[in-house]
Amino acid sequence: MTRPGILATGVAAAGAAYLGLIGLACAAGDPLGGAVQKQPVNIMAILMFLVFVAFTLGITYWAAKRTKTTKDFYAAGGGITGFQNGLAIAGDYMSAAAFLGVSGMVYGKGVDGVFYTAGWTVGWPLILFLIAERLRNLGKYTFADVASYRLEQKPIRSLAATGALAVVIFYLIAQMVGAGKLIQLLFGLEYTYAVVLVGCLMMLYVTFGGMIATTWVQIIKACLLLGGCTILVVLALHHWGFDFSRMMQDAVANHKGHDVILQPSKSIADPVSAISLSLALMCGPAGLPHILMRFFTVPDAKAARKSVFFATGFVAYFFVLAVTMGFCAITIVGTNPTYLDAAGKILGGGNMAAIHLSNAVGGPVFLGFISAVAFATILAVVSGLALAGASAVSHDLYANVFRRGRTSEGEEIMVSRIATLTLGVIAIVLGLAFENQNIAFMVALAFGLAASVNFPVLFLSIFWKGLTTRGAFVGGFMGLIAAVACVVFGPTVWVSILGFAKPIFPYEHFALFSMSVAFGSIWLFSVTDRSTRAAKDKENYRYQMIRAETGIGAEGAAAH
Amino acid sequence: MKNKIYDNVSASPLFEKLVQKRNRFAVILSVVMLGVYYAYVLFASSNPAGFGTPIAEGSKIPVGLLFGWGIQAFAFVLTGIYVFRANSEFDAMTKQVVEESSR
Fold first, then answer.
1. How far is A111 from chain B (nearest CA, A)?
2. Which ipTM was obtained for this model?
3. How far is B103 from chain A (nearest CA, A)?
4. Can you name the CATH fold of A12-550?
5. CB neighbours (10 Å) of residue A234?
6. Domain ranges (residues) in chain A
C-alpha cells in the first residue's frame, strides 16, 4: 500500500457508482449510497489541483475588474466568441460524471455506454436547428426572458425561475456529494473539506468574476479534460500498437461476460424504457438553465450557431474517448490484481476505471494530473450551476417579478451576489447532510424537471402561437408535479429509499410520461383559455416571431 | 417607429421566403437526425443480438458501436451543414430584410 492515492482496499464497490449517475442522468445502475473509505493523501494530485486553483483565481481577479454591468455579470458582456462558447458549452456538458461514468459503464457493461453517448450527442443538432438562434435573438440573460417574452411576466417568470432553481439545487447537491466522494478516493482528503472547498471556490468565482470568470474556468477545464483524455487514450491504445480491433478482442476475452459486452443490456432492451430514456437524454440539455444561459454570452445569432457546431464536435469526440477508455480498461485494469480486490472487483467502484487506467499507462504523475482534472471538472460545473441559479433569483424573481423591472444595475448585481452566497451555503450544508444518503433521485429529478418543465414551456413559447399565459403556467406546474410523482412513486425512491417491494410507477425512465403530461396540459389549458390576456398573448406572437427570426431588437454585444 | 419596422417585415415577401426556406431546412435536418437516432434506439431495444454482431468475421467490434459513433459523427456533420448555410445564405437574406424594412 505504498502507492500514492487510490490504491487501498476496502472501498465499497457501490461507493463511486453515483458519480456515474450524476452524469448518466437516469441510468440504470447500482443504487447510490454506501460509504467510501478515505485513501492515503495523494500529494501529486493535490499539487496539480492547487496550480489549477491558483490560475483560475488569477482569472477571477482579472474578470472581477471587467465586471461592471449586469450584462458583464450575467452574460460576460456578450463578448465571448462562438469557438470559446462552444468549448464552454461542451465543458458544462462534460461533467466528471460523464468522464468517469461513461468509461465506468463501458468497463462494466460494454456497449451500453455508446447508447447513452449517442443520445447525449443527438440533442445538440436539434438545439441548433430549432432553438439556438431564436433563444439568442429573444433573450437577454436567462431562458425565462424568452419564455415570458409575450406572456404575462409575473406568473411565467416565477414558473421558469422555480424550474431553473429546482434543477440547479438538485444538480448542485448531486455534484457536491460526488465531489466529496471523489476527493476521498483521489486526493485522500476528508469529505467535509472537499465539500467546503468546492463550495467556497465556487462562491469566489461567481460572486467576483460573474459569467466572465465562470466561462473562462469552464474553457480551461474543457481544454484540460479533452487534452488529458486524448493523452490517456493514446497511451492506452499504444499498448496494442494502436490496433483498435485487437484491443476489442482482448476486451471481450478478458471481461467476465465475454461477448455479452457487445450487446445492449436489459435496461435498454425494452422499447418504452429506451424511448423514454432517449427523450430525457435529448430534451434534458435544452432545459438545463446553466447551458441555456451560455447562448446569451455571444454577440449574435451567427456566433450562437457556431458555438453549437463546435460544442457538438467537442462533445462527440470526448464521448468517443470515454468509451474507448472503458474498453481499454477492461484489459489493462481488469487483469491487473493491483487494481482489484479479493473478489476481483475494481477498487473504488466502477467509476474508477479511467482513473486506474491513467495510473497504469502513465504512472503516478499522470494519475495526479487526471485526478486534478476530474476535480476541476466538478468545480467548473458547479460554478455554472450557481450562476444560473443566482440569475434566476436576481434577474427573474427580484428584478422582474418583485420589483417589476424598476431596479438599478448595481442593485441587481448585489442581489445576484447575495443569491450566489446563499446558494453556496445551501449547497455546502445539503452536500454535508446527504453524505451517506441515496441521491439518485436528485439526479433523476434534475433532468426530469429540465425535460418536463423548462423544455416544454420554452419550446412552445417559441413555436406555438396559441400558447397562453394560463396554459404555460398550469401546464408547467403539471409537468413539475408529474416529474416529482414519477420519481417518488417509481423505483428510485419508492423501492430504493422507502423500501417498498414494488414501485407504483413501474418505469425508472419517466420522461415520456411526464413530458406528455406537460405538453398535453399546456395545450389543453391554452386552447380553452378565452381571457383577454390570452388574446394579447396570441396577438404578440407576431412581434416575437419577427424578432426571433430576424434578430431585430435583439441584445447586442457590450462595447468594451 | 418600432412598430413600423415590424409591419414592414411582416409585409415583406422576402421575409416570408426566408422563414419558409430556413424552417423547411431546419425541419428536414431535424427529421433526418431523429430518424437516424430512433432507428438506432429501436435497433438496440428490439434486436440486441443484431446490435452485437461483429462488423466482420472474427472481429469483436460490434455493429452497434460503429453505428453509435457514426451517429455522433453525423450529428457533427449536420450541425456543420446547417451553420454553413445559415451563416451565409440565410444571414444575407436576413440582412436584406432588415435593411429594406428599416427604410
1. 6
2. 0.95
3. 14
4. Sodium/glucose cotransporter (1.20.1730)
5. 12
6. 12-550
